[in-house]
Design brief:
Elements lengths: L1 H10 L3 H20 L4 H22 L4 H36 L1 H12 L2 H4 L6 H23 L6 H23 L1 H9 L7 H39 L4 H11 L5 H18 L3 H25 L8 H21 L1 H14 L4 H6 L1
Length: 354
């Protein structure tokens, strides 16, 4: 007990440490308890981070900040309009078609699976195959019902969509326009001597900004290249699968492994084990390899590298706490933890050892 008391007095006798601790506790508490209510604000902050780079480029070319903000904001509205009215309806249409074709695909898959007991009688039993097929059919039927029932017809869903359409653009505009004003307002709640807080904020701000912008470009590039590749080979549901492949990069390592399954399943049901299937698989694996070994190092060269184990632990921990946003910000949040540990005051004897 005396050791804990001595550590507490020694560590929290520094006002900078107290300010950093309070900032972290308040930030985590707000997101944890009010994350659902503040979802439009969080989404707007992400988009503002994404657009800040373009605004800075405009300012660097001599534009007043307000003019740069207006131009970038209008480009953002045009891009969102294209996604909502151009890409999403086609992707949803292909998803509906895929669900409708599921029974035929299952029938073809069942025919192939029923051959396994004949080929490997010592390893596979026909009853096992029948049970597996029944489970797959039940899961696909349940999934089909959920997909086909998706609609904005409910009052709550319609209101939520309207809130996002109205509030998010407004918040993005004001976050960009009044960035300095908002930051200065927040800083007035911290002590004037806030060296540790400034150090952590400076590191994390750079990391989050670079991460959000890099992740946007990674999603866009991987999705577009995948769509061109799938279309070139004539793969069914090319747009839907390309969107899934693009979004899969949000979750490092795990996303790429998961999205590979539907891509290969659709290709197999379309072509079987023919040459088209092999060529498409090779092309898809090349896209994933180039993304991991060339595109990611290029886009995230300024982001602090975390060990793969730290990344996976961050995804599991923050994803469990905050769902999608926890997964999306797993790497920046892991970087935040690393920055705090780096900036945290160390005992003199430990500094001598390091």
């Amino acid at each position: 007990m005396n050791l804990i008391t001595a550590w507490f007095k020694r560590t929290f006798s520094d006002p900078q440490v107290i300010a950093l601790t309070l900032a972290l506790l308040v930030g985590f508490a707000v997101v944890f308890f009010f994350g659902a209510m503040l979802a439009p604000v969080l989404a707007s902050l992400v988009i503002a981070y994404l657009l800040e780079g373009l605004v800075s480029l405009g300012e660097g070319s001599g534009m007043p900040r307000l003019v740069a903000v207006i131009i970038v904001f209008l480009l953002f509205i045009m891009f969102v309009t294209l996604i909502i009215f151009g890409v999403m309806p086609l992707a949803f249409q292909q998803l509906t078609e895929l669900v409708q074709q599921t029974p035929a695909m299952l029938a073809a898959g069942q025919k192939s699976l029923m051959r396994l007991p004949e080929l490997y009688p010592d390893l596979v039993d026909s009853n096992q195959i029948t049970d597996l097929i029944n489970v797959i059919k039940a899961e696909m039927a349940s999934f089909a019902q959920r997909v086909l029932s998706l609609s904005a017809s409910s009052v709550v869903g319609l209101i939520t969509i309207l809130v996002y359409f109205i509030l998010v653009p407004l918040l993005v505009f004001f976050f960009l326009k009044d960035k300095s004003l908002i930051i200065n307002w927040l800083l007035q709640f911290f002590p004037s001597n806030r060296g540790i807080v400034d150090q952590v904020w400076k590191d994390v701000d750079v990391q989050i900004a670079n991460y959000v912008r890099g992740k946007f470009w990674e999603i866009t590039i991987v999705g577009v290249v995948s769509y061109i590749t799938f279309t070139f080979f004539g793969l069914n549901y090319a747009l839907l699968l390309a969107v899934l492949v693009g979004l899969s990069v949000i979750i490092p390592y795990i996303g790429a492994a998961v999205v590979t399954v539907p891509v290969l399943i659709v290709a197999w049901f379309q072509w079987g084990w023919g040459g088209e299937f092999i060529y498409l698989t090779i092309a898809y694996l090349i896209i994933q390899a180039l993304n991991g070994n060339a595109l990611v190092p290029l886009l995230f060269s300024e982001v602090v590298n975390l060990h793969p184990v730290a990344i996976i632990v961050s995804i599991l921990l923050f994803g469990g706490l905050w769902g999608f946003w926890g997964v999306f910000f797993a790497i920046p949040l892991g970087t935040l933890v690393k920055a705090v540990l780096t900036a945290w005051p160390k005992r003199p004897d430990r500094e001598a050892v390091t």
